[in-house]
């Protein structure tokens, strides 16, 4: 069954059939219903590959993430919402922080297997900078990519870290430690810088406890907290680089009989779903993950339509106070 045969059955032009399938809002309701009913009855399937070749587009966007953690899945959920609204399909590429895999996904889009990329952080921004002439349309999400000159939808990790540290200081904590994320990751660096700046502004030494950096993982949080528990004096407050690290720290404390929020206060970052479900519920800095993904795809679609110049959208973070922070004992 071809589009011409469907048109002959209805006594309309093939272009009317095309409009009914691609832009039904352009037709009168009566004509639209009649066309769609006939297409369904005859079993006509448009040749999408041929259509995309003519239009020089695939209507497919890539979302490239470093891990499949709940945090990045929430970002993807927002991207999907925007995709439904704008008529695109999205696929997720998972790099496991492997530079070669990240480059592979970018190459696939550059080869016209997709129309654009939402890059949710980058494993190696330097590698992207040197290939700017072969870059497909890109929007950066969560953090800007230095030197790439791509629009970005992000949060201010530095300010969020300052808010987290100030929360502990406002409760009266002066012995505060930081357990960071991967040392070379830009987001982890911004969060550490925010901690350091806040401590210095308060007249406190940000290096009073060991410099600790590792994976955004519960296991790393446990190991790092075990290190802090060997210090004398112990910290009374801990700012963790993300929620998973914070939960690992709390687990290490529990094993030695310490109570979070009473003996040592712990605050995380991100407000992943586990933060409110964990017992006790975790005090943290909320990142609007779903909104971040939603705004990123709208920005990318605008870029593909030629409607936007370079843009830097900064979404606000917020302090969420729950049960894992309190005043220091004594």
Biggest sheet statistics: 6 strands, parallel
State the domain count: 3
Query: Which descriptor suits the 3D outline?
Result: elongated
Instruction: Supply the CATH architecture of the largest domain.
Output: 3-Layer(aba) Sandwich
**Radius of gyration over all CA atoms, rounded:** 25 Å
| Helix-residue proportion | 40-55%
Distance between the amino and carboxyl termini? 82 Å
How many H/I helical runs?
A: 13
Protein name: LacI family transcriptional regulator
Organism: Sphingomonas quercus
Domain HTH lacI-type: 1-55
Keywords: DNA-binding, Transcription, Transcription regulation
Q: Could you please describe the fold and organization of this structure?
A:
- By secondary structure, the protein is an alpha/beta fold.
- It folds into 3 domains: 3-46, lambda repressor-like DNA-binding domains (434 Repressor (Amino-terminal Domain)); 56-155 and 289-315, 3-Layer(aba) Sandwich (Rossmann fold); 157-287, Rossmann fold.
- 46% of the residues lie in helices and 15% in strands.
- The chain has helices at 3-10, 14-22, 29-42, 48-55, 70-86, 99-113, 125-129, 157-170, 186-201, 218-228, 243-255, 273-277, 289-304, and strands spanning 60-65, 89-94, 116-120, 138-142, 152-155, 176-180, 212-213, 237-240, 265-267, 284-286, 312-315, 318-320.
- The strands form 3 sheets. The protein has a 6-stranded parallel beta sheet with strand order 2-1-3-4-5-11, with helices on both faces. A 4-stranded parallel beta sheet has the order 7-6-8-9, sandwiched between helices. A two-stranded antiparallel ribbon has the order 10-12.
- Helix 2 crosses helix 3, helix 5 packs across helix 13 (289-304) and helix 10 (218-228) crosses helix 11 (243-255).
- The longest helix is centred in the first third of the chain and has 17 residues, at 70-86.
- The protein starts with a helix and ends in a 10-residue tail after the last strand.
- Mean pLDDT is 90; it is low at 48-54.
């Amino acid at each position: 069954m071809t589009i011409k045969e469907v048109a002959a059955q209805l006594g309309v032009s093939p272009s009317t059939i095309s409009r009914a399938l691609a832009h039904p809002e352009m037709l009168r309701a009566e004509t639209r219903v009649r066309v769609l009913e006939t297409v369904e009855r005859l079993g006509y399937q448009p040749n999408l590959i041929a259509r995309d070749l003519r239009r020089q587009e695939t209507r497919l966007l890539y979302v490239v993430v470093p891990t499949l953690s709940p945090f990045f899945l929430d970002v993807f959920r927002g991207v999907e919402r925007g995709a439904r609204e704008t008529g695109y399909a999205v696929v997720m590429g998972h790099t496991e922080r492997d530079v070669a895999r990240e480059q592979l996904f970018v190459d696939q889009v550059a080869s016209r297997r997709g129309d654009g990329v939402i890059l949710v952080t980058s494993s190696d921004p330097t590698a992207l900078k040197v290939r700017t002439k072969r870059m497909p349309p890109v929007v950066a999400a969560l953090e800007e990519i230095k030197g790439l000159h791509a629009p970005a939808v992000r949060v201010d990790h530095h300010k969020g870290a300052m808010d987290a540290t100030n929360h502990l200081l406002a409760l009266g904590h002066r012995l505060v430690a930081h357990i960071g994320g991967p040392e070379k990751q830009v987001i982890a660096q911004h969060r550490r810088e925010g901690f350091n700046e806040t401590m210095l502004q308060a007249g406190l030494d940000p290096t009073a406890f060991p410099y600790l950096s590792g994976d955004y993982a519960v296991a790393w949080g446990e190991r790092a907290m075990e290190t802090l528990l060997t210090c004398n004096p112990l910290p009374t407050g801990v700012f963790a680089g993300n929620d998973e690290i914070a939960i690992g720290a709390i687990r290490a404390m529990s094993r030695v009989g310490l109570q979070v929020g009473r003996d040592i206060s712990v605050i995380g970052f991100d407000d992943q779903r586990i933060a409110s479900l964990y017992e006790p519920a975790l005090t943290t800095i909320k990142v609007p993950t779903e909104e971040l993904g939603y705004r990123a795809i709208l920005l990318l679609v605008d870029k593909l339509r030629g409607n936007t110049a370079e843009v830097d959208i900064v979404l606000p973070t917020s302090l969420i106070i729950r049960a894992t922070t309190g005043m220091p004992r004594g």
